[in-house]
Amino acid sequence: MTPPDLRNLLHDLGDEARVPDLLDRSLAASRRIRRRRLTTAAVGALTVVALTIAVTIAAPWRSSDDPVVNPPATETPTPSTSTGTSSTTGQTTTGSSAQGTGQTEQPPTGDLTGTVYYLVDANLYARTGSGQPRLVRSFTDQAVAVSPDGQRVAWIDLASATLMVSAIDGSAEHAVGPVANMGGLCNQPVWFPDSRRVLAATGMDNTWSTFDSETGAATPLGVATGCYPTVSPDGRTIGWYDGASDSGTLLTDAQGGSQRHIPAGAAPCPGTVYAVGPSADRALVSRPDPDNASCGDGPGRSARNGTVVDTGSGQSAGPADALTTGVFLPDGRMVARTVAGELVLLTADLQVAARLPAPGDSFMVVLGYVP
Amino acid sequence: MGADADAAEFASFVRARSSALIRTAYLLTGDQQLAEDLVQTALARTHLAWRRLHAVGNAEAYARKVMYHQQVSVWRSRGSKKEVVTDTPPETIRADESEATALRLAMRQALDRLTPRQRAVLVLRFYEDRSEREAAELLGCSVGTVKSQTARALRKLRDTAPEFGLVEEVTR
What we know:
Chain A is α+β, with helices and mostly antiparallel strands. Chain A has helices spanning 3-14, 23-58, 81-84; strands at residues 115-120, 123-128, 134-138, 144-146, 152-157, 162-167, 174-178, 190-191, 197-203, 207-212, 218-220, 227-231, 237-241, 249-253, 260-261, 273-276, 282-286, 306-310, 316-328, 334-338, 342-346, 352-357, 365-370. Classes of the chains: A alpha+beta (371), B mainly alpha (172).
């Protein structure tokens, strides 16, 4: 039997399906979804009102010398040296963006002399500055992640459905624990900023766990989330693709809770979140193709036409360049690849501080940048 | 455009495209009820986004994308069937069944042994006639993943139903 026969058989099989009248059912389902969204929005609005009242009441008693109250941390990552301090600027980072803090000094800029780690297909490369790319290692699939300190790599071995970790040079390879084999879809490992814990899907029913890459201990997330996670540099927020929503772009805390979607705006198709900024106020997401001919690239690890948006409004925050992939640094800067084929370093206010010709082709996925 | 006109056009869309969508959903799920649920969800979300989708003329693309994401990427436990691995050979086909019916039965049983994503790449490549690139874009994975999933799916079909004599597909 040749492929055309397979086509015929599939068409014959598809013809077995009965075609019910789905109009009333889909309209009823639509109303249910709408009601659920309205309920969620109402709860959110009430929460905002309650918080506003609480802050208003508390404000007169707070001394101007008191520190600004930060949102409660949902987990306490152990920052590594390389993620806690920018060696390029010498500034100690605090894991919060300069945006909205009232700071008047110029945000750090810097250059692109550090090492960028990236995937092309399933090959992991490293390039330092404008030097030649170096093939670090080849994998069988794109489910690969480089730790924020650039010292280790995690991947999913599809044959054994196992989360694996090794040193970046391939030494000290070991199995961390069993994970869900989704054939390269959805389940992508992602490191937390401590370069020790790794998030991976453990169940086909969309359950995820945080693994200690050294002990193998797994801590399940409490609630179902989505696919293709990305962890913010402060470790407090996870961005997900959520195909069940119009937005597609879901943000949660490190346990999968406090779920909120990035507003979809006028996007005709679900987007994907590729990177989340340090304080979760910004995210790199996909946006519709200019011709609206398709729903874009679908969920995955790089965009055809991405942009950084304000996660509260969904509005583009810049830069002018369309982006395909990128990572946020702990100080709010960002290293990204443009659609035009450049690797750019963006300041915390999304101005281009440095440009280099990008290594790799348009399908490169930036996994990390070590200044 | 008013609400009445929107409602009428959505109803027209559902009536015109339900048949095609339910066939794809049936191939993805292998089950009539799951297929109906999948299409119902896709249509409900399409309805919610109808005004902006209809304006740019890609309502069906959106509905199909929701279906694939629901079935393959998002892994809602209700709608996804896990791979069933058994030592039991496929159900014996009765001699009085026609060859076409027998082949269809064998194909259905063979498909049931594939993972949802393997089914998805087969449906995209051989039913919807999508290129590897298009399938990768729709599923949100690399072209390499589509290639490997297609190869695994065909290999599993060959192993499960050698009577098909499937050959490696031609890359497009």
